[in-house]
User: What shape does this take?
Amino acid sequence: MENNGNRKTGILSSIATKRQIKKVNYISAREARQIAKENKKIMMQYEKLYNRKNVPEEEYRTLMRDPNNVVEIDNLHTYFFTDIGVVKAVNGVSFDIPKGKTVGVVGESGCGKSVTSLAIMQLLQRPLGQIVSGEIRFDAGDFVYNIAKTPAERMQKIRGNKMAMIFQEPMTSLNPVFRIGEQVDEAIMLHNPQLSKEEVKARTIQMLEMVGIANSQGVYKMFPHELSGGMRQRVMIAMALSCEPRLIIADEPTTALDVTIQAQILDLLRNLKEKINSSIMLITHDLGVIAEMADYVVVMYAGKVIEKGTAKDVFHNPAHPYTIGLMNSKPVVGKRVEKLYSIPGNVPNPINMPNYCYFRDRCDKRFKACDGEYPPEFRLNENHTVSCYLYSQEKEARK
Amino acid sequence: MTSTLMDDVMLSIGKTENTEKGDYIIEVKNLKKYYPIKKGLLSKAAGYVKAIDGVSFKIKRGTTMGLVGESGCGKTTVGKTILRLTDKTEGEVYFDGIPIFELDRKNLRKLRPRIQIIFQDPYSSLSPRLPVGEIIGEAVKDNNIVPKEEYDDYITKIMLDCGLQPYHKDRYPHEFSGGQRQRICIARAIALKPEFIVCDEPVSALDVSIQAQIINLLKDLQEKYKLTYLFISHDLSVVEHISDTVGVMYLGNLVEFADKESIFRNPLHPYTKALFSAIPIPDPDVKMKRIILEGSIPSPANPPSGCKFHTRCHECMEICKKVPPREIEVEKGHMVVCHLYDKEVAK
Assistant: This one.
């Protein structure tokens, strides 16, 4: 597989250089066909691996590096093989989610935060999106999975059971033609086949009550369109929590909601976390939400983690110029500034990423070392790491 | 020839009618907008969605008024009705002393360049079939804003002002990112030399770092062209940054209206208090005492009796359920619609 990847990037980079020489920002039909053909070959190989039957357990059983973590993501690479080239949506991401803690992932749209979460759930759009390399270790209690290699049928048993997801748009993620009760029942029934119908219904109603729906008997019989946005998001949360998952992935759970409803939902999530003792991976672009909810913060930019640490470290001593810029560009109530800081420029094109620091062209603190290859992680303290040459220990690099 | 003369007379009459002309550019008086709910074979109106239910405010020339509220409270409808993009049900709107709803087609068309709007979604508000230069220039040509020979230079100048490059003129909207599209929308509005612009959630579809660019651009343009904004948003931190006065809407009514300083320092209405306390603050050490509102906004088709907020209010009194509150001026320029501050009720 590794070989294949290299060959592939070789061909692509030759096309890329050609394109640079021509200085055009489109690709011809011939180039597109060539890329599509190459990509199809690679995708087929991944699909073949994925679709095997009777995969031996040894292939996807691993051990956790630290037993206190629920999820360990190690150098994850997730690529999308599109017809205009390979989009490296996640390009070497590693972080851990400790048990019972909330990890917030921040970044602008297109930085790969959602793709990371989809990779954990193995919900990437196949065959286009593939985990190319790296490991996601997930501790399901009695078994430690390497999600990147787990076959589909095994995955179905974990998904919705040991790990669950709360999506951004409660309007579109509930099925409009089924009653709320049936939809929550389904998740419980699938993972607990020993329960009788009455027991399942009792559990659903208990879940609905737990997420603060007062009229739970009534809501059980309602259709999604009869509920408001906040109520729908509560139903989504009830559905996610119904099997007592060890990990909850909340992908922008409050972005589509109003501030007052957002406060309700965040309050609910915080209370529930204490009750059921599971870990939350919270994905959002709102720094305020992260500050309020998260114990650990991971800042992503263009498919890479640029800074991670405890919430206190990152918010009080932001290290990476991008993190600092992001914090300054958001107006804060009660803090007067004449002019907002704005990060110049745009996120680089995900096809043809440069081989120096991805943020260099937008950075106001760049210096000579930034022209070198992508900066490694520098450790500021036990938990706080940053990928920026400003924090390099070597003196020569700083000049 | 005579008709144009008549128009000028009409417009000037409108101007002199209002005594406060010059100080306030927009004056909204008891504006109402009901949308009928149609039912049955003859589509008879079975009821009304009261999107705006009696809103009055004034905007001073050269300032920005922020309008905040939850979704469905009628903020966007206010913006649209002020520009007469939809018809009113009741009430009046004066722009520079001219009653907008009394103008006929021709005069309204003449007025249009002076009042412009920037929409929320830059992806759907630009025609995909026109190059950017044309999008910005179309209305300029139609309204003869500049002489023909200066047209090209004028468009270039506007584009540079809005942070676009002149070579972008021949490109199509799909070639631009969200932030740049919003710049195109702004350029299109600015090109007509307007005096008043309604910004309907111009940054909520954009990323944080791009948001800052657009907000800075709007502020710079305001200084340069002496513009007046009505800034509609649900993001309170953005509104605090850009506005001079702030109006808080709830279910079709303005519940509080004041200067930015006094409303953020001392919010009076229980709804405003709850709204402000719900803003997440990017500092892990700050633990806010939060007022969490129960439930969600009631349906505007069937609003609660008395004070519309009483179903979710923490300080609800008996009177709130029956009598709609009056507008009370607590400090100079700080209006609140709530029984708590009504001295007669206190008695």
